[in-house]
Design goal:
Layout lengths: L3 E5 L3 H13 L3 E5 L2 H10 L4 E5 L9 H10 L7 E5 L4 H10 L3 E4 L4 H11 L13
Parallel strand pairs: 1-2, 1-3, 3-4, 4-5
Helix pairs in contact: 3-4
Length: 133
């Protein structure tokens, strides 16, 4: 059975690159561009990992952290990886308080991100740091 992955990013280019990479790597992938779309996916499906952009709009916000907070309320929450291009210290602190599995600064190598995701799924251990380039 394929692991199910939800990718949430408002950039079509980034979202499509993640989806293509993870599908080629054998994952079943759904994607969302908005908080509302992500909520619809999460309400109707179970995911093994969620990758979410911290800021889902042209204004600097923390919609991705709202998704992480929602997931942490679930009894068996999937691992959550939060990505950001405009990370602020308060966002990293909030992510840590929410217990997200990783808070990464873009750009992130897709190969490296895949290794991180696999490690969170119980694959072979990898040395994964909180920042990647």
């Amino acid at each position: 059975m394929c692991e199910r992955l939800l990718v949430v990013d408002d950039s079509d280019t980034v979202r499509q690159a993640y989806v293509a990479h993870f599908r080629q790597a054998g994952f079943e992938v759904e994607s969302a561009a908005t908080l509302k779309e992500a909520a619809e996916h999460l309400a109707s499906s179970v995911f093994d990992v969620v990758i979410v952009d911290c800021c889902l709009s042209s204004t600097v916000g923390s919609e991705g952290l709202a998704i992480a907070a929602y997931l942490r309320q679930m009894r068996s929450a999937p691992p959550v990886v939060v990505l950001t291009a405009y990370g602020e210290p308060h966002q990293a602190s909030a992510a840590a308080r929410l217990g997200v599995d990783a808070f990464l600064h873009k750009p992130v190598s897709l190969v490296w991100l895949e290794r991180l995701v696999r490690s969170r799924l119980g694959g072979p251990p990898h040395e994964v740091m909180a920042t990647a380039s």
